[in-house]
Amino acid sequence: MEKNFKQVENAFRQKLQEVSEMKELEDIKVQFLGKKGELAQFMKQLKELSNEKKAEIGKGVNRLKVLFQEKIDLHREELKQQDYKQRMQKEWIDVTTDPYQTEPGSWHPVSLVQQKLEDSFMAMGFQVLDGPHIETEYYNFEALNIAAHHPARDMQDTFYFEDGHLLRTHTSPIQIRGMEKLTPPLRIVGPGKVFRCERTDASHDSCFHQFEGMMIDKDISVAHLIYFMKTMLGEIFESDVEVRLRPGYFPFVEPGFELDMRCLLCGGKGCKFCKKVGWIELIGCGMVHPNVLKAGRIDPTVYSGFAFGIGMDRLAMMKYDITDIRPLHGGNLSFTRCFAVQ
Ligand code: DAH
After folding, report:
1. What is the DSSP letter of 213?
2. From atom 2 of ligand 1, which residue's Cα is the shortest distance away?
3. 50 or 110, which is more confident
4. CB 184 within 8 A of CB 298
5. Inter-residue contact 240 to 250 (CB < 8 Å)
6. What is the fold, at CATH topology level, of the domain defined by 109-339?
7. 4 CA distance to ligand 1 centroid (A)?
8. Domain boundaries, the chain
9. CA distances for 97 relative to 90, 101, 103, 188, angstroms
10. Which atom of ligand 1 is nearest to the CA of 284?
11. What confidence score (pLDDT) does residue 198 get?
C-alpha cells in the first residue's frame, strides 16, 4: 500500500484547513470520499489481501469515512455561518430610518386654532360645515339682509368676477347654506378663508380666516350666546375668560353685538397689547335677524337663534404672541415651524 491511513488523514486535515469556500469543500469531499477518491483506493486493493488484512483495512477506511464526513459537515456549517455574518453586515438596513429623509411637517398656527375650535364645538353638538370661496351676491349679501345699496356692502369691498360672482367677504354665507340643508334645531360652525379688497398692513390682509357659528332652536337667548362664547374663548386661551357685550351693527343680527374679552395679559388694567383699554374686541355676534331665518326657510315666529363670527388669524396671533399678520400668510416654513405640534 503506497499510502497509509495516517498520511491520508493528515493530507485531509491539511486541505480542510485551507478551505474558505463551499466549492473547495465539495472538491475535497470528492477527492477523499468520492467513488474514485482516496478512501476508494484502499478498497480496490482488498481483493489481493488476506482476510485479516481485509478486516483491518475495512475498519480503517470506515473510521476515516466517518471522521471525514463529520469534519466536512462541521466545516460546511462554519462556512454557512461566516457567509451569513458577512451578508448581515453588508445587507443591514435600519428599518427605523426614514428612507426619503423628509422633514416632519407641522401644523400652521391658524390650523391649530381651527382644530381647537372645531373640537370644542363638536363636543357641544355642533356640525362643521364648509362653503365655497367663490360666492354669489345672494349668499354673501342679500340672504344676510344686506340689500344691494346698503352701506354695509362698502365695509366689505371684495373682488368681483365678470359673471357677478365674488370672493366671499365673510364666512356668514355658510349660515344660509346650513339652514337650507338642515332643519332646526340646528347647531353649525363653518371655518374658512375670506377675502377683502384691503390694503395690507400689520393687522390687515386681503385674505384671512374666519370661524362662523350659528345655533337655532326654540327659546334661544343672549344668555346662550354668552355661554358658548365664554366656553369657546376659555378653550382657546386655556383659562377662565371674562367677556362683555357692546352694541354692534351687523345687518344679519338684531340685536347685534361686539363681544370683548378682558385682556389676559394685564387682567384689565390696561397695557400695550389691549391699547390701554383692558378689553380686546374679538367677536361679532347677535341674535339672528328674522329676515335671515326666512332666507333659510325657518319660521321666525317659532325659532330663534344666535350667530357669531370670529377672526382665526387674530386668535392665533394672540395665542402665539405674533405681532404681524403678514408672516402668517407668507408661506415661510421656518416661521410656521416655530409653532410646531406634530
Ligand atoms: N360676518 C361678520 C364680519 O365678517 C362677523 C359676524 C358678525 C358674524 C355677527 C356673525 C354675526 O355671524 O352674527 O365682520
Report:
1. E
2. 309
3. 110
4. yes
5. no
6. BirA Bifunctional Protein; domain 2 (3.30.930)
7. 109
8. 2-91, 109-339
9. 17, 8, 12, 43
10. 7
11. 86
